[in-house]
Design a protein that fits this description.
By secondary structure, the chain is an all-alpha fold. The protein is built from 11 helices and no strands. Helix 9 crosses helix 10.
């Protein structure tokens, strides 16, 4: 087994007989690794409020003969397609059935009545979708949650609040919700959910490259404090 799967990923593999390939390619596990959200309470396979990009559905049917649910759209805060920059839908605009219970085979008919929606390339919602989509390709050592929380908070304080910690502490969650129209329900800045951490990390770094570069550089200077050591992951 790949040495970077991590202890919680291994537990998931054993308990549910999930292969590493399935874990990495079909769930939110890589995103959780990159953001230090490896906890038993993290839901790697959300089963509610599935969303679709209408253009993706059309292209999937034309290319593969069927549509499917893209994991990059599963995070609650994602509202736009990372490829087409168009709004995602929780209900089929043709038959109004929730995507979670919509039969994939029925999209063959429904797609003929999909409305045309103009893209909003480079909008904050589009860039956030790209940020999450890119981190889903992460395949390296998992970061520790406290390290991510600390680094992201420090970056937000520096870039959005001019170093004013008191202002940042009381306004980060409010401002994050306003920025993406999301709903971070926690008032705590530590141990936050995968969804909330994705939002804050994006607001802090904007791109996956900038985020991973910052975390990797910190990890190299202080590996015990910022990266899970090799003894904390099983092989």
């Amino acid at each position: 087994m790949h040495r970077h799967v991590g202890q919680f990923g291994i537990g998931l593999n054993i308990e549910h007989r999930v292969t590493e390939e399935v874990l990495r390619e079909n769930t939110l596990y890589p995103l959780a690794q990159a953001l230090g959200r490896l906890a038993l309470s993290t839901n790697y396979t959300p089963t509610v409020r599935w969303k679709i990009c209408l253009q993706c559905v059309i292209e999937d049917i034309e290319k593969h003969g069927t549509s499917y649910i893209h994991r990059r759209n599963l995070l609650p805060a994602i509202t736009h397609c990372s490829l087409h920059a168009t709004p995602l839908h929780v209900k089929c605009p043709s038959c109004l059935e929730p995507i979670t219970i919509h039969k994939l085979s029925n999209f063959e008919k429904c797609r003929n009545f999909f409305p045309k929606t103009p893209p909003t390339f480079r909008s904050s919602h589009h860039m956030f979708a790209i940020f999450v989509s890119d981190l889903l390709s992460y395949n390296d050592k998992p970061f520790i949650s406290k390290a991510v929380d600390h680094r992201v908070f420090e970056k937000l304080v520096a870039t959005l609040y001019n170093g004013d910690y008191s202002q940042a502490y009381y306004n980060i969650i409010i401002d994050a919700n306003k920025a993406l129209g999301a709903r971070i329900r926690s008032n705590r800045l530590e141990g936050i959910s995968l969804n909330a951490c994705s939002i804050l990390a994006f607001l802090a770094y904007q791109t996956s490259e900038a985020y991973l570069d910052a975390m990797t550089n910190v990890g190299e200077r202080s590996p015990r404090g910022f990266l899970m050591s090799s003894r904390s992951t099983k092989t």
